Amino acid sequence: MSDAKLMFSVDSLLAEARTRTGGLEDFGPGPFTEPLALFVASLETDARLNAVGQYIARERALAHIVNRLQYVNDRKLFAGVERQRIVKPVFIIGLGRTGSTILHDILAQDPANRAPLTWEVTFPSPPPATATFQTDPRIARCEAGFPPLDERREKFKAMHPMGARLSQECVVMMGDAMCTPLFHNQFRVTAYQDWVDREGDWAHVYDFHHKQLQHLQSSHAGERWVLKTGAHMWGLEHLLKTYPDARIVFTHRDPVKSLTSYASLTALVRSMGSDEVDRFEVAEDWNPRLQRALEHAIAVRTAKNYPDAVFYDMRFSEFILDQFAVVKKIYGAFDLPMTDAAAARMKWFIADNPQGKHGIHRYSPEEYGISPAVVRRDFRPYIERFDLPPE
Asked: Can you tell me whether residue 310 is helix, strand or coil?
């Protein structure tokens, strides 16, 4: 079905989104329909979708279109959203599969920390409110939207936990700006990802990201945001311009492990909507993209143009030995208070979520045509800078 015509178009998506939102049409300033058209065109020419994949891709696109319309409309309806201040947010960035997801969920246990949860990112309108934050019907709606667990989804859960109340990544929120590496992870949209890599409007992504955080905290605020995605490597300079006082945890791991695990996750996710997934191609395509993004982020950081930002380097090898000890170091580096209540909740979460709780993620470089020697040659400056021995 690789040459099959899509069963939807940009026009049909926009028409359906208008129906789902009661006639909303204002996408606000900045590019949206143009990159949406690029995404849809790449789905048709590159993605090799089967019928299930077409449905998944259509609903993915519609979800972001609807969210965008509602974010813009809610800003008109709810007074004070635009006056919300985002102060010293904590970001977790770095290559994928480096412990960032579990770290994000651990940090989210601190009552002072505000992490975007899956349910509110999935259904952000109206802004979530403190009084109903634990009982909002959107939580159940989000849980009901997860597909039943089959063999592939059991494997995915072993790689990346799912749940309406779990922390969500900024890479998903970036979809509401229609510029995100998420799409090429979920679908084979090569031409679209080429645009993201070379021409993506990251200034707009972070302008809208700031509006999203204002929206989400307007009726349910914390002392600070804790946010996460490796996609921040693509536009780190724009992140730092938008949040000049950001606190950034940069996670590091042997790139052979990181890239192989990422290829494994991508191949699995794409197989849910395509019968033609080439594991070797996934790694061959993604590895240089990730290398460029990593090198870009390090170059931005090295330039030191943002004196109010603070970085902390977290090595995966140290993190897995004692997660809470590393969290305490992060709090110390960022001068954050660690309350007894926060420490107790974090320790409980760590004990309740041991590595392999949902299954063991097994993978080898050979399955994806990855040569450890070549990766370590290509990433030598990174490996040496952060002292990353082979795992």
From this structure: strand
Domain count, the chain: 1
Whether residue 246 is contained in a domain is answered as yes
Sheet-wide strand order for 224-228: 113-114, 224-228, 90-94, 247-252, 310-315
Q: What's the token pair of residue 335?
A: 């001068």
Query: Where are the extended beta strands (E) located within 238-352?
Result: 247-252, 310-315
Pick from 126, 141, 142: nearest CA to 67: 126
Collapsing DSSP to helix, strand or coil, 166 comes out as coil
- Which residue segment(s) compose the domain that 313 sits in? 87-386
Among the listed residues 159, 103, 97, 104, the one whose alpha carbon sits nearest the alpha carbon of residue 287: 97
Look up the pTM and report it. Answer: 0.94
Q: Which residues are bridge partners to 365 per DSSP?
A: none
Q: Is residue 46 part of a domain?
A: no
| CATH number where 351 lies | 3.40.50.300
Report the candidate in 376, 242, 226, 248 with the shortest Cα–Cα distance to residue 301.
Answer: 248
> What backbone phi and psi angles, to 5 degrees, belong to 43?
-60, -40
DSSP state of 75: H
| Residue 220 maps to a domain | yes
Neighbours of 321 (CB within 10 A): 10
pLDDT along the chain (391 residues), means of 10: 76 98 97 98 97 96 98 96 98 94 95 98 98 97 81 52 89 98 98 98 98 98 97 98 98 96 94 96 98 98 94 96 98 98 97 72 88 96 95 86
Q: Rounded to the nearest 5 degrees, what angle is found at the Cα of 282, between the Cα atoms of 297 and 190?
A: 75
Secondary structure letter of residue 5 according to DSSP: P
Backbone angles phi, psi at 117, to 5 degrees: -95, 155
